[in-house]
Structure formats: structure tokens, C-alpha cells
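<instruction>
Derive C-alpha cells from the sequence
<data>
Labelled lines for chain and fold
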Amino acid sequence: MRILTVLVLLAAVALAGQASNFDVQQLADGVYAVIRREPAGFMVDANNVFIIGDTDVVVVDANGAPGITREVLAALRRITPKPVRYVVNTHYHDDHIRGNAVYRDAFPGVDFIAHSFAKSYLPAEGASNRKNFLEGAPGFAQQLKGLLKDGKSLTGGLLSDDERMSMTADVALAEYVLADGAAAEAILPTITVDDRLTLKHGRHTIDIRHLGKGHTAADLVVHLPADDILITGDLVVWPVPLVGDPQSHIGAWSATLKAALALNPRVIVPGHGTVLKDPRYLDLLSRMFGAINDQVTALVGRGETLESVRKTVNVDEYRKQLAGDSPMRNLLFTNYVMRPAVGAAYRQAGGK
């Protein structure tokens, strides 16, 4: 099973029942981020944000399985007894939506907000991808187990310390999603957004916006202008972005990130990874996706094949900044950036 296929199919999850797998960080008055602790790896689960108003709560993103969301909800209840009124799903991937049922069951009348495309995607293509995941995940987990036992990297060399740590977590995540998340239903949005929806929530103005395509066609961001906080979903992932082929939109991603930067955020909560206090990372990603798209578009214009384009496109300067000397991050960069980004950009530029 190719690693790239795993990216598209796996909306992987963290171990349930272990609150230590995340940290709760207060970002502003009434605003808390739930940040995953897992090392960068092939498996991920979503960060969450609580926005606490005078009478109720807005939650940004659920998780990849109900057990994880129950842990997140328990953390929320340690902060406030107020009920959850809205859950905003920044896009439709499983690691951001499979915990929705926990909020539905706990808070009758809760509304789920997502881009309108999610409503048609989830019961159709989403269900098909889910089926593929359930069929493919056990084999991938077994592959990783074998590599860990033999001390071998996915690239064929010796296993590095950071690869061992990440792959060990990946195995646990894959096994858990099969046990707890496999049967979790996909809750469709009750409120859809095509462009913008603004909620007044106590002292908070919550601006939910579709700034453009990027990670998917249905990306939403949540902007809290009074606190200069931007919650990006997987438009921004640290330390290595997550790109899908064909679901990601490489030509548009750069401009969408520029639109995010134009909001002048002071604090950025990515879909995965640490809270960012500097917008330069968004600029780095914008420039990288722009470079990939420009190179691929020029090569397609010359009639180059996809195989030739893959060999020609060069973004080594961005690989160095994002992956450094880490074997695991370089593996992620190859499989979660270069391969899918070039493939998606090639087709989107009209390559045959």
C-alpha cells in the first residue's frame, strides 16, 4: 500500500483515554486550543479550539474517532459547564469530523457548520474513501510493525530514532481507529458556508470564512479579529503540510494563504502541529506552493510527461526549511508534499 494512498484515506486518530496526548492552551480570554502531542508522522488527529461565550461554546473541529472527542469534551467540561452550541468543521476529512456524534449526543440542538461541498462529499466520495481506508489500514499497520521489528526505514535504510518514535505512534493510531473509529458515523453539516458566516458570541466575533481552495475545495478558516487569532484547519499544518492528490488545489493554495496572511493574525492554530506565533510560516508555504505550481505549469506547457515533471521540479530550498536533517520529516516531505503536490498540479494544469 503506497504511503500517498494512506494520506488520502487515513484521517487517523490519537489514542483514546489518554488526556496526556494533548495540551490545552489558553490563547485569549475564553479561547482555548487543544493541541495534539503526537510526533510528526503518517498518522494525525486534529487540533481543536474552544471559544467560550456568555452562555455557550463554539468548538472548532472534532476528531477522528468518538473516543478522542470524548476526551476533548471532558477537557472542555473542566473549563466550563456551558453547552456546545456550534461545531465548526474546517473541512470534511475524517480526522476532523468523526467525533461530531459525541457533540450531537451530548448537546441536543447543536449545529454543525461546514462548507457546502462537505454535505455532498461525505455521503458519496467520502464514504468510498472511508471504505478504502478500512480495507487498507490493517495492511499498512502490519507493514510498519514489520519495519519496526527489523529496524528498517520505509526507504530501505536503517531506522532512525525519529522514524522509530513516529512509526510506533502511527501503529497505535491505526489500530485505534479500526477499533473505535471504524463505525463512527459522518454527521452532515446543518449549516453550510460558501463564502462567509459571522457569529456574535458574547465578546467574540467569530468570522467563519472560505478564503479559497487549498488542502481541499471545502476549507474554512475561523478568524477571531478582536484577538488576532486565526484557526486554519489543514490549510496550514506544521511542521510538514499535508497535500492530497487529487483533493488538494495547488494552483489556488498559494493565493488562499496570502488571503489568510492579509487578516494579519498574531496567533495561528494549524490543523495539526504547534500553535504558531509568527505568520512567516504561512508565507513560506504560500511561496512553496506557488513555486511548485509555476514550475509544473511551465513544464506542462512544454508537453512534458508526469514522470518527467516529477524529476524536474525542484523545491529543495523549501524541503531544507521544513524538513531539515530529520529523516522522518524528509520522508513526510517526499510523500505528503512533493509526490501529491506535483501530481495534483500536473492534472490541474491540463497535463495528460
User: Anything to note?
Assistant: The longest strand covers residues 229-237.
